[in-house]
Amino acid sequence: MRLAKKSKHSKPWKILKRKIAKLHQLIARQRLDWQFKLAYHLFSDVSVIFIEDLQIANLVRRCQAKLGGNGQFLPNGQSAKSGLNKSLQDAAFGQFVQILEYVAWKLGKRVIKVDPKGTSQHCWQCLSKVPKSLSERWHSCPECGQELDRDYNSALLIQKIGLLSTQEEDITSVKTAVMASLTEESRALP
Ligand SMILES: [Zn+2]
Asked: How far does the centroid of ligand 1 lie from the alpha carbon of residue 138, in Å?
């Protein structure tokens, strides 16, 4: 039963179209319901949740537009990166963030957003740069000896930057945290 197989605006086409619309509505409602449950569950024993700011991530990760000699756009790999699946995932996550913020407000709790730039490439403990490709799933810091899962390192770093941002106004990202720790170090020198 495919909509494309029915002749357009015929009665069977209209009935099937309405059924599909209902199904989409049902899925959207179920997702919303599940996202609210998840948000309340996550806040059940914490008062603050730190998250990567997706809007900043989009700006940071978007490929530069490439222009050809005649001013035409050349392929830059962006469309391959952001397929339909990716944009649906982003939309669902964006909706979840809104729900998370609403639930936080309802409960008198907080959501703190952190610039995700560099959170996978720095050590959460000492902030040293530890470059790794996407396929490297382990964080091993040559500076301070931290050994842990790559994503867990990122999560701890996001939490650290988020906490710092509540204490120091000028710390909002890994970069500003690194800069702040460097000035602190130079102050400590004799
Ligand atoms: Zn380290």
From this structure: 13
127 CA → ligand 1 middle, Å: 6
Q: How far apart are CA 23 and CA 74, in angstroms?
A: 39
Tell me the pLDDT tens digit for each residue of 43-97: 999 999 999 987 765 554 555 555 555 555 555 555 555 566 666 777 788 889 9
Can you give the pLDDT at residue 74? Answer: 55
- Give distance in angstroms: CA of 94 to centre of ligand 1: 32
Is residue 82 within 8 A of residue 144, CB to CB? The reply is no
What is the value of pTM for the model shown? 0.73
- Distance between CA 27 and CA 92 in Å, rounded? 12
Ligand 1 center–CA 148 separation, angstroms: 11
